[in-house]
Amino acid sequence: MSLAIVYTRAQAGIDAPLVSVEVHLSGGLPGLFIVGLPEAAVKESKDRVRGAIQNSGFEFPARRITINLAPADLPKEGGRFDLPIALGLLAASGQIPRERLDQYEFLGELALGGELRRIRGVLPATLACRDAGRTLLTPGENAGEAMLAGGAKVLGAAHLLEVCQQMVTGNALQPPVMQPRAPSGLALLDRDLSDVRGQHHAKRALEIAAAGGHNLLLIGPPGTGKTMLASRLPGIMPPLNEAEALETAAIASVSAQGLDLQQWGVRPFRAPHHTASGVALVGGGGQPRPGEISLAHHGVLFLDELPEYDRRVLEVLREPLESGRITISRAARQADFPARFQLVAAMNPCPCGYLGDAERHCACGQEQVRRYRARISGPLIDRIDLHIEVPRLAHRILRGGSPEESSATVRARVCAARERQLQRAGKPNSALGTREIEHYCALSDADHKLLEHALERLGLSPRAYHRILKVARTIADLAGSGTIKTPHLTEAISYRALDRTMGGVRYS
Ligand SMILES: Nc1ncnc2c1ncn2[C@@H]1O[C@H](COP(=O)(O)OP(=O)(O)OP(=O)(O)O)[C@@H](O)[C@H]1O
Ligand SMILES: [Mg+2]
Ligand SMILES: [Zn+2]
How far apart are CA 153 and CA 137, in angstroms? Predict the structure, then answer.
């Protein structure tokens, strides 16, 4: 029989659906036909596979060859299928045994000389292969990444010949030696919260944001430490657990940059510039790739100078801010990526930056200020639970000698508060739905009146109402209190600075 079947994996979002490569040799005029791959990918793959087979000392079968990649409607990038195609050809023509093939899945691009080249997206493929009970054979350069999938059977090879040896003997390749490393979750150790002097009000908000998973907006004049504060948020958040670390790594694995093993288990901190394109921010491309909002999954997305971002891009953020996912549609193809990030945004109070500053005069007119702020839509502002002003510090405080709290100290409090939330509702407070808010964030009658009065006075939306309750719940959790008390509620209300300072102006 001159049919061989080899298993491999395609990539769709961060899923890796199974693909069978069926190779059939028959009589008739010699030729090579590949079904189920896009035209351009087929041509390149043909050339590489032919070169690799011949330069490895095998014979390229002079028969009519039909190769089917099934199912046909999957998105398929060319390179990764070179190795399974080559092995199928060699097995169908009797040059390697086919008995062991079905215990493996193969991925890898071939160089003309037969060397295996690294590909993208190996981690999702490894997770799926593990669950199918097979051994994954990848380029050696990808083996370290594949080994992150705990419990997976992985072999790495540098050359087509090594893979063929493995098919002959079953024990030619040794599994890669990797130190199994638990995700540390401790991001950016060089950025400690104790570097930031003063700003205790902002630090308090940062701690609440970390504890409850709340979004945060920092408003203040230039040079008051907004960027410093934002970049220290991942370091006070609870460490990533294994499942979160794998999800985050899987997204990086399929991204244009690929996975950096140094970042394994580290909470992401992504700070795309406001000039970055829509595709770079939310994802896209012919073969859809995740954007910054997905690379920030389980971590922090920092948008500095918020009003400078393209308004259409900011509007796109509304959906993932609610659902934690983004769907990218392009022509006939669609990809879905996780995007459960915590948003930290920073902005100046006005175009010149010095509105309300004690030392410098603001040169902006009222209308200019209004237009500047109107660049951020009300619905987006509504989705940011904590608004905080970051004022200029007296030089005395900046120089001051009193020690500041370290990230580790704050993180311990955050973890305790987060634990309470998980025990109570199985999720951080920011993720509570309307029903759950009513259930878990009950107020006394007096506090209820207090809140209604505040909403009226500040002209807040119904969405803001629920957000205040969630923040109050987090403040109570940090205080170790089973119920929300008046001081927790009033503090939560105080974090609606933008609603307040925008003084009743409505934004579309
Ligand atoms: N509270 C602070 N403690 C220690 N250093 C500070 C503090 N605030 C500002 N700095 C110093 O000022 C520099 C600028 O801070 P940072 O970039 O965080 O300000 P910013 O508010 O983001 O300003 P901009 O609005 O211009 O982006 C820091 O690199 C740091 O050296
Ligand atoms: Mg800054
Ligand atoms: Zn100004």
Answer: 9
